[in-house]
Amino acid sequence: MTSNSSTRRVLVLLALLGLIALTGCIGQFGSGISQDELAQNNTYQWDQDATIEEWPSNVTVQIEIKQAGFFATDNYRAIYTGNETQFTLSERGFTRPHSIDIRAVKYQYPNGTIVGPQAVDVDQNARRTRVRLPEGPGRFAFTGDRRNKELHLPAFTGGNYTVTLPTDHSVGDLFLSDVSPRSYSTSTVDGHTVLRWEGVNGDQTILVRFYRDRDFFLFYGLAGVLSVAGAGVFVYYRRKIREIQAWRAAQGLNLDRDDDDDDNRPPPGMG
């Protein structure tokens, strides 16, 4: 009976391992990005007719953060400019890397012509998203999802990066924001805060946690109110304790005595 039970447990374990392996294989070779997603239409920060002479020469990757509102997913829009013909988009997970979803891909040729996903080969599995572009130079644009008030994107190529925040949003506060890599500069362009990195390595990650400007005043205003209220409560109870101590002393109820006095007191009836 014990032997049959052990055999069943071994078979169940093997079946479970087989299912996990099969799931991994499906994830390795299956694509999760449809052509409809790749063909979505988004507006990017580039001139529709700009030729190579008008392309930015000092920026490799331009990222614009978009606020989608309450009923849509916040996203970012990235534009790569250069000669690379292949990218791998992947980020670290708890146990292994996992792919990054992209959509609304576009490609701009040196003569200014912009085409959709028919010029770009996108292949995705569980661990990575691989993008193949035409022979450069060229410009490649795509859209990806992000968390609320945060951008977390592995640098998929080396070079100079810029990140443009939505209007009325900022970085720079110790408690409300975080930026990595640390060696960045900021400027304001048309009411937008723009972060810039020079010489980013392909193994680094662009991390930007930002805040709405009004949240800065709300956070520190609330912190100030709570601090004043806490100080008031402390002063009130401290005064009450002193009043009680004074009343006890006036009533002769102060029972605090030094240990030395207790040790020197004679036994009862011998004082």
User: Averaged pLDDT, please?
Assistant: 81
Q: The CATH topology of the largest domain, please?
A: Immunoglobulin-like
Q: What is the succession of H and E elements?
A: HHEEEEEEEEEEEEEEEEEHH
Annotation field: number of helices: 4
Biggest sheet, strands in spatial order? 6-5-9-2-1-11-15-14
Name the beta content range: 25-35%
General shape: elongated
Question: How many strands?
Answer: 17
Q: The biggest beta sheet, please?
A: 8 strands, mixed
Class derived from helix and strand content: alpha+beta
Mind telling me which CATH architecture of the largest domain this is? Sandwich
What is the class of the largest domain in the CATH system? Mainly Beta
The whole-angstrom Rg is 32 Å
Distance N to C terminus: 85 Å
Low-pLDDT stretches? 20-30
Q: Would you mind describing this structure in some detail?
A:
The chain has two domains: 31-209, Immunoglobulin-like (Sandwich); 217-253. By secondary structure, the protein is of the alpha+beta class. The strands form four sheets. It has an eight-stranded mixed β-sheet with strand order 6-5-9-2-1-11-15-14, with no helix packed on it. A four-stranded antiparallel β-sheet has the order 4-3-8-7, with no helix packed on it. A three-stranded antiparallel β-sheet has the order 10-16-13, with no helix packed on it. β3 (86-92) and β4 form a beta hairpin. The model is unreliable at 20-30 (pLDDT under 50). It has helices at 2-29, 35-38, 213-250, 259-264; strands at 61-66, 75-82, 86-92, 97-99, 103-108, 114-115, 121-124, 129-132, 138-145, 150-154, 159-164, 169-170, 178-180, 184-189, 192-200, 205-209, 211-212.
